[in-house]
Amino acid sequence: MYRLIILLFFFTLPLQAATQLEIADAYVAEAPPGLDVTAAYMTINNPTSADKYIVSLRSDDFDAVEMHTTDIEGGIAKMRKLDRLVIPANSSVSLTPGGIHLMLHKPKKRLHAGELITLEINEADHTLHGLVLPVKKMRPGTDTHHHHHHH
Ligand SMILES: [Cu+2]
Question: Measured in angstroms, how far is the CA atom of residue 1 from the centroid of ligand 1?
């Protein structure tokens, strides 16, 4: 019994207190040659007790990276640029097709499935997250079409 309690304690003890945003399942949508914009998606988890704010992004592989949200107005999806994205304390925000997404402008290399893209995410407190995202083929039927307009 004593040993069991020690084991349970060991397996539930976090390795270290979570102090940072955790970014998972990040990827860039494959884009056909000639298309000058695509989108990136991911899940951003905030395990801390303070709200976190993403305020800017950059990538060596694109001219510019913006945060967009998608509003449905009269049945038409319209993208709106966000100046910051809040990740509330103890919760997560999913960036998904048709919702909040990163808009990647003017790729500097081909966006074939399997390629890797680098991305830097900056928080308001100057915490920097360096990511490497795979380019993935989008499932047929996933509507990324509206990304081709508005810009
Ligand atoms: Cu967009």
Answer: 56
Q: What is the pLDDT of residue 148?
A: 47
Query: Ligand 1 center to residue 57 CA distance, Å?
Result: 14
Amino acid (1-letter code) at residue 32: P
Dist. CA 80 → ligand 1 center (Å): 7
Q: Taking the domain 18-148, which CATH number applies?
A: 2.60.40.1890
For residue 23 the two structure tokens come to 């970014």
37 CA distance to ligand 1 centroid (A)?
9
Of 105, 116, 97, the residue nearest 41 (C-alpha): 97
pLDDT mean for each 10 residues of the chain (151 residues): 56 66 96 89 96 98 97 92 97 96 94 94 96 90 52 41
Residue 12 amino acid letter:
T
Please tell me the distance from the alpha carbon of residue 28 to that of residue 144, in angstroms, as a whole number: 12
